[in-house]
Design brief:
Helix content is 19%, strand content 38%. The chain contains three helices and eleven strands; from the N terminus they run βββαααββββββββ. It has helices at residues 48-61, 65-74, 78-87; strands at 15-17, 21-25, 31-35, 91-96, 107-113, 118-127, 132-137, 139-140, 145-149, 158-167, 172-180. Strands 4-5-9-8 form a four-stranded antiparallel sheet, with no helix packed on it. The protein has a four-stranded antiparallel sheet with strand order 7-6-10-11, with no helix packed on it. Helix 1 (48-61) packs across helix 3 (78-87). The protein starts with 14 loop residues before the first strand and ends with a strand. The model is unreliable at 1-10 and 13-17 (pLDDT under 50).
């Protein structure tokens, strides 16, 4: 949910903005922005459907523990946290192949973040001709760090590692890295 830092620009302001928005002051001093009746329905507004999907997701999932805990920490409602989570995909920040040498037991470390929680991280390893060597789920080692432990010997001297991270709504980020081993 967006918050205005300087509220004096809207102080005492209410009513229609453009064709579809209405500003309504609340008792707590905040200004509520709503679509007027008929609002964006049928309008050419490309992101409106995404927002509607986010609200629908939040309605069914705002009771999840992760949303409730984040809401308490951020002083938001679980509904707003779930809506924002739907609109914000996870992000893979780093893939560390320093300890991976193509042998069973070698770890691959991943740093993946999300505004609420990364639900899972998957790892796929191929050779230089895109033949599958192995794939599986990484294990969480702390809040944002995940580790995948290789189970098979890489047959060649070059690998591609493809990592994807999913958040609670199921949105993905994917990063590919390569290494000579």
């Amino acid at each position: 949910m967006a918050r205005m830092k300087r509220r004096h620009e809207l102080e005492g302001f209410s009513g229609k903005v453009g064709e579809n928005l209405r500003l309504t002051p609340r008792d707590d001093g905040r200004v509520h922005v709503v679509a007027r009746d008929g609002g964006f329905e049928g309008a050419s507004f490309p992101h409106w459907q995404v927002f509607k999907d986010a609200v629908a997701y939040a309605r069914q999932s705002h009771g999840l523990d992760a949303y409730v805990e984040t809401a308490v920490r951020t002083q938001e409602t679980p509904f707003h946290v779930a809506t924002a989570d739907f609109l914000s995909p996870p992000e893979i920040k780093a893939i560390d192949l320093e300890e991976y040498h193509g042998r069973p037991g070698d770890p691959i470390h991943v740093l993946a973040i999300d505004d609420v929680e990364v639900a899972e991280v998957g790892v796929l390893i191929t050779d230089d001709e895109n033949h599958l060597i192995e794939m599986g789920k990484a294990s969480r080692t702390d809040e944002n760090r995940w580790t995948y432990v290789a189970t098979r010997q890489a047959p060649g001297h070059h690998v591609r590692v493809i990592v994807d991270a999913a958040d609670l709504p199921g949105h993905l980020d994917e990063v590919r890295v390569e290494k000579d081993i």
